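Our preliminary data section would be incomplete without showing what the modeling component actually yields. Below, a chain of 331 amino acids is followed by its predicted structure, encoded as tokens that our downstream tools consume directly.
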Amino acid sequence: MRLRTIVAAAVLVAGIGLIALPASAADAAITPGTAWKDSTGHPIQAHGGGMIKVGSTYYWFGEDKTGESKDNANFRNVPCYSSTDLAHWTFVANVLTRQSSGDLGPNRIIERPKVIYNKTTRQYVMYMHVDVPGHTVTRVGVATSSTVCGKYSYRGSFKPQGNISLDITLFQDDDASAYLFSEARAAGGLRVYRLSADYLSVASLVTVLDDFEAPAVFKTGGRYYVLGSHRTGWNTNDNEYSTSASLSNGWATWKLFAPKGSKTFNSQTTYVLPVTGSQGTTFMFMGDRWIPSSLGTSPYIWLPLTVKGTSVSLAWHARWFIDTSTGRWHT
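Predicted structure:
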């Protein structure tokens, strides 16, 4: 990924004529489906990831799947990368690393780490799916840190209200209330739990949605949107979405948001990032194009979502541009 500077204006200079001036902000070029590297030239390892913005900096968390395949996908690290333009990424640290035993030990699975900030406790709180290769543990893990990309202290795992939990995501509402979206399968679809005030445990069940995995949630105009994937293992499928004016009820029938048969442009949803600037907000779809035989080389698929009322759609752009200062995108 790289930047380009666009011509923003022209001024009249006596005796010369019109001279193009560079824009005051650069557009970041996003090239989905290609091999992305960090500032040191190493492949970015942030699969199944999520993002949080602190000040003007975006922090990207995900799974380190270096050298892994679908038959050998044990936990290695949760890395944290930073960027101000969403195109150039710097590896900061492995904020959660393999331990000698327990949930983070050998032959364990840690997937889909998501981070939100609790203003009251002044702690960054990470949730993740905790399991073993046979998917018989099916728990939610929690870790905290006083700094966004610092070392996270693992606080253990649990089954939300005794239910199994596989793919998860976090959502923080306008009033700072936080929610865990947890795929429970046999226990009853995609379950939405309200978290406790400190975000460290489940306080109550809000609702149960249809059975989808890989959830991603965002809100705009007072309306909630959730994207999810069907269960086809490491193979991609046509992901769908639902929307409601309330988290607890009124969710619409699930619909496709990418062209039918595109298999969501051969990707699985992992997160939706609001890119908010001086001129508006772009909601960026983040997905993984899994390569089962080489998970660590699976490309990332980032594309701008079009949101109109209750409708969400996604189109393919081999190369597109985002300006984080304005929140605008273009091709």
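The radius of gyration is 20 Å. The chain has one domain: 3-330. Preliminary results of this kind motivate Aim 1 of the renewal.
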